[in-house]
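Appendix B: a complete holo record

For completeness, this appendix reproduces one full record from the ligand-bound portion of the collection. The bound molecule is nicotinamide-adenine-dinucleotide. The inputs are the chain sequence and the ligand SMILES; the output is the full three-dimensional arrangement of the complex, encoded as C-alpha cells. No fields have been trimmed.
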Amino acid sequence: MSDCINAVEKAFAELTNGTAVLPLRIGIKSDMGLNLYMPAYLKESQALACKVVSVYKDNPIKFGLPTTIGKVLLQDPETGEVKCIMDGGYLTAVRTGAASGVATKYLANKETNGIVGIFGAGVQAKMQLWAIYEVRKIKKAIVFDLLEDVANNFINEMSKKLNLEITKANSPEEVLEGDIICTATSSSTPLFDGNKIRPGTHINGIGSHTPNTRELDTITIKRSLVVGDSTEACFNEAGDIIIPFKNKEITQSHFYGELGEIITGKKQGRTDASQITLFKSNGLAIQDAATAKLVYDKALEMGIGTNVNI
Ligand SMILES: NC(=O)c1ccc[n+]([C@@H]2O[C@H](COP(=O)([O-])OP(=O)(O)OC[C@H]3O[C@@H](n4cnc5c(N)ncnc54)[C@H](O)[C@@H]3O)[C@@H](O)[C@H]2O)c1
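The structure of the chain with nicotinamide-adenine-dinucleotide bound, as generated:
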C-alpha cells in the first residue's frame, strides 16, 4: 500500500503537470451492471495501460462474485505491445485506497483524534482503512454497513491485519466521531446528515460515481473544501457534485481544485484546523496505469507470473 500511495501520488502530479494522457473513460451499461474501459499513459512513470472493469451490484449475492471485477492490459510504451495481463479487481481496490491515502496525507489535519470512520465494509472499504493507516496515526476505526456479516468480516480481517481496535457502529452518526471519514458504499442516496459532521473532519468520498447517485448530501458538499481527482470526472460522473450543481445549490466555483494541484503546490490545501475537507474520488485510469506498472516491475523483480504466448 505504501508503494502504491507513492506511485499514485506521482500519477496525480503528472496529471497536473501535463505529462499524463487521460481520456475520459468509456462506459457501457448492460442489463445488470456498468462496464468501464479506462486507458491512460503516464510519460514520466512510463506507464501505458487500459483497464476493463465492471461494477455489478448484485454479484456478491447472486453469484458469490465481487461487485467490482477487472483486468488490466499493460503495454510497453516503446513498442505498444501488450506485455502483461493482470487482475484488476484487487488492483482497483488498492489504487482507490491509495488515492484516499494521498488525499488524506495532504488534506487531513496532521493531528487527529486517531479515529477513522468507515461507511461500507466491502472490498473498497478495507483498502480505505489500510491507506489511511499508512498516512496518519490511527488508534481506532468505526465501521457501519447495512449487512451485519459484512461488517463482522471487515472487523475480523482488518483488526488482525492492522493490529487495530475496530468497532461496529449502530447508526451512521456514530461513524462521524472519526476525524477522518471514508464513504465506500454501494448506496445511491446520502449516508448521513451533513449538519452532523464535526469541524476539522476530512472526508474521502469514493463510492458513488454516476450522475444520479450520491453518498454525500448537499449540506456536506456546501460545508466542505471540495477537492476532486479530476474536475472533468467530478462534473461528468459524480452525483455528489452534479446533483447540488444542477439544483443550483452550489456553483462551479465551489469546486476548489484537483488533488494534483494540491500535491504540486499550485493550490493550497487546508488553511485552518477547523475546516472540513472533502476528497471526491471517481477513480482515474492514471491510478490503474501507475499501479499496474508497479505490480509488473515488482513481479519481474520477484520472479512471479507466467510467461504465455498468445
Ligand atoms: N472511486 C473509485 O475509484 C472506486 C473504485 C472502485 C469502486 N468504487 C465504488 O465503491 C463502492 C463500493 O465498492 P465495493 O467493491 O467495496 O462494493 P461492495 O459491494 O464490496 O461493498 C459495498 C458495501 O456498501 C454497503 N452499503 C450499501 N449501502 C449502505 C449504506 N447506506 N450504509 C452503509 N453501508 C452500505 C453494502 O452493504 C456493501 O457491503 C461501489 O459503489 C463502487 O462502484 C469506487
